[in-house]
Write a structure and sequence with these properties.
This protein has about 625 residues and is an alpha/beta fold. The chain contains 26 helices and 14 strands. It folds into 3 domains: about 1-115, Gyrase A, domain 2; about 175-330 and about 380-430, Rossmann fold, CATH 3.40.50; about 450-630, Isoleucyl-tRNA Synthetase, Domain 1. About 55% of the residues lie in helices and about 10% in strands. A 5-stranded parallel beta sheet has the order 7-6-5-11-12, with helices on both faces. A 4-stranded antiparallel beta sheet has the order 1-2-4-3, covered by helices on one side. It has a 3-stranded antiparallel beta sheet with strand order 8-9-10. It is globular. It binds arginine (ARG).
Length: about 625
Amino acid sequence: TTMDESLQTRLQKLHVHQPDIPECFPSLNPFDVYRIHLANALSEVTGVQPKIIYPLLQRTATLDKGDLLLPVPALRIKGERPDVLASRWADQVIRPFPESTLVSKPIVDGPFIRFYFNPTTLVKKVIPAVLQNRTEWGNNPLLGLKDANDASKGHKRIVIEFSSPNIAKPFHQGHLRSTIIGGFLANLYKGAGWNVVRLNYLGDWGKQYGLLALGFKMFGDDKALEEDPIHHLYQIYVKINSLLANERKEIEQLEKDGKDDSKLRNEGLDEQARKYFKAMCDNDLEAISMWKKFRELSIQRYKESYTRLNIHFDEYAGESLVREESMKIAQKELESKGLVEESQGAAIVDFSKHVPSKAGKALGKALIRKTDGTSLYLTRDVGALFERNDRYKFDQMIYVVATDQELHLKQLFKLIELTGNEDLRSRIHHVNFGLVLGMSTRRGTVVFLDDVLRDVGEKMHEVMRKNETKYAQVSDPERTADILGISSVMVQDMSGKRINNYRFNIDTMTSFEGDTGPYLQYSHARLCSILLKADVPTSEIESANLDLLIEPHAINVVRLIAQFPDIIQNTLKTLEPTTILTYLFRLTHTINSSYDVLQVLGSERELMEARLALYDAAKSVINNGMRILGLTPLDRM
Ligand code: ARG
């Protein structure tokens, strides 16, 4: 199609081939321009090849430490002390380029050489690039090319499985984190030119769903189901489970008393649930059609919540949809490798027999198939993986699942490896995360996503009402409060490293003070309002005289803006939302502290235009960063 062609030519144009140096994109990432320049200059004085120096040039943690630094020890040069080498090289390095317009004279700091970009050239490189590319700034479609040197070979495909709640059970904190992190990863890879498949693998199968269906027959109500499937199914789930618990107690008591418990065992709820699930597995029409209805109504409801979170799925998969045949194939493969043994009529894999020492012990034993022939969570995962591999022919697949399922995923990955599918094994990854502690809603501790979102929205509405004058200016306070509430939850979730646990705290997350969602939204909205109030045509802003941006505050903002594409590229390595979020807060702090110095209203027209160009570029970066994280940037609040 023509659209593909224009993208292809654009990619080809963008692609300045760097012999020897992988992941170097000077046309999209300004830092790479400086890295090439410095790697070449340093190569002349050190005799080390540019391709070795290039990846060692690191971005600094704070601007006072320079823009890029070279840790001399990383070059592993024998014989001389790194700090001595550093001083000598720093002296020599500017000589090959005495009039380097890119970098100022470096500063030696022990064994480090620190480089500062020349502000005059930096400003002119960066601001126009942002203003020309706007929403695309920071994206790098070259990263996802199958062949870095040949765009015509197309883009890599990644399947991201995330959210994956269980029908009829609460959408708990683990699902919320999976949803937030998975949505973020999908945006990140898309911006990097990957072909992204978003997959929701619903927990909708297993004996407990046989029990749920029984419960529905007993207490279900079609109207209530249509109206609020998630809560209705949950109520039924709770009721029937408490009946089941009573039944278990009764059986225990009968046993204790030495009385006959066979009637309860053979005809009780537990057995009926097992039979019902077996009927579902055997494709019993009535059982299946009821099941379909539960599933579809629940999906409709989930979709509404996902929309509020800016998330959509390309496929609603689920445990119920894994074909019996794929699981049989999986089991056959396991059997043919001699991995499966029988244990009391069930099929199991004892990892300790196939994986050496400690690792094997840690993996333990896994049940592959029950005595009655029905499948299990793990078996369904193996089958699902084979199906996805056939269907999507993915280059990579990510499971976004809490660390408490670490063992399950390790067992899954090991089974794949043991069946000899090493290539498939190398393409799948677990992106894990810790717990959210103390998540509850005003209604109690059982958590449904809708209730959480409603609560934070209401809380934000209360906070907004406190400032009457401002509140009166917001055109759609309900929607604004909703977005602010969602931003609060998401930013709190993404603030730390994924693996860390954190405590769910509505008061902290909805505050405008500190590094919160509302603060980030406020910073964005403030830039929008400055641009709106100034009322200068975009064409004027885009042709502003950037030589007027000379104050250290302005330069520092530009230095941070310049980092954005590099930050994104790094995020593809860390897969941590906090990598972007921390950067956005650094940028917003720097901007928010520069308004007094870099005034717009009241300045000369030319200066005003230059400063607006700076603010406009900063706004674009914040906007792009927020959208990658899955937030909806507000223009007004
Ligand atoms: N539905 C599962 C749960 O809530 C999460 C699914 C994780 N993904 C997987 N392929 N096992 O615990």
